[in-house]
Sequence to fold (400 residues):
Amino acid sequence: MYDTLDDIQGTGRVLARLDLNSPVEDGVVQDNKRFERHAESVRAMLDAGHRVALMAHQGRPGRDTYVPLDQHADILSEHVGEEIGYVGDTYGEDAIRAVRDLDSGEAVLLENVRFVADELADHTPEEHADTPFVRSLAGEFDYYVNDAYSVAHRAHASVVGFPEVMDSYAGPVMDDEYTYNSSIREREFDGNVTMALGGTKAADIIPVMEALADRVDDFLLGGIVGELCLRAAGYDVGRDLEGMDLFDDQWDEHGDTLVSLLEEYGEKVHLPEDLAYEGDDGERAETTIEDIEKDRAYLDIGSETLAEYEPVIEDSEAVFVKGALGVFEDERFAVGTSGILETIAGTECFSVVGGGDTARAIDIYGIGEGNFGHVSIAGGAYIRALTGEPLAGVEALRRA
Fold:
């Protein structure tokens, strides 16, 4: 497999990759679960007496979220309960000086790794390892720790380059996420396995259904992907209205595949029986799929659908969730998402909830993260683990 942070003997200089990528509103970085989770890992390294330099990214070039990490250091410090230093440099003289000045039990956050051209270069791991970025930092440390599961599917320099030339370990977040998110393929369950699939992208749910149809007994669909599947089943829904760009392009690209999936796995696939919309009075209204009006926007599964989905979950040994079943940010249309999560929380089943939006719903509606086996902070890496595709970051740790 791979070594973990617990396998490090003694103390030393640690270079750790985190994923602190966060929403940015009017230039202000927003706190989120990633800080909370990674703070526990940082705290463990500091308590062990390591000297720790942290790497992380924020945004992509050309986007408003592409900002320095000074605010991230402040937010992380609050979660760790101790000051995390910050240096506006990634591997130059200022960064090296800050690293060398660290004492036992201290940490510094280096500048946004995506400010470094080498980070996003299209290289093999070996080529990444031979870049100035990796060569300059690797010689300053005894250990490399990758705790950034959310970017484990990215073959970037900070993810795959350092394990080529350093003693490397998985951090607690990396190990926990990978263990739970790959469990649908790695574990054996005696009872039914159910997966609730929602969200906005058909491209996310198609490979999941194709890869897991042999292991999942019931797929419960909702959200935009649920409407697209209803369209594949012949209902007049899942079409763009004026000013909308959610359905038609996806249908052009994936419609034939969705039709084929329903034909092949139809007995496993549960489609919504009713949908919710905003009524003329501004309140939530519902309609059966037989009475759908194509010039209306639907924002959630209906209460009858939820009533059909709940006993399926209650009879399951394991339940996995990917994506929201409605526009849960609006309380009127949170019935599907919050209802599914509350039903799972009330059972003793093995449960994994994935995707940042779904994790936010748990917080918004006060369901309690402790009621689930695992709540993932990953997106793309979660999908890849579900489908059994290799993750570049995990493979790099295995090689190391």
The chain has 16 helices and 17 strands. The radius of gyration is 23 Å. The chain has a mean pLDDT of 95. Residues 67 and 294 are 42 Å apart (CA to CA).
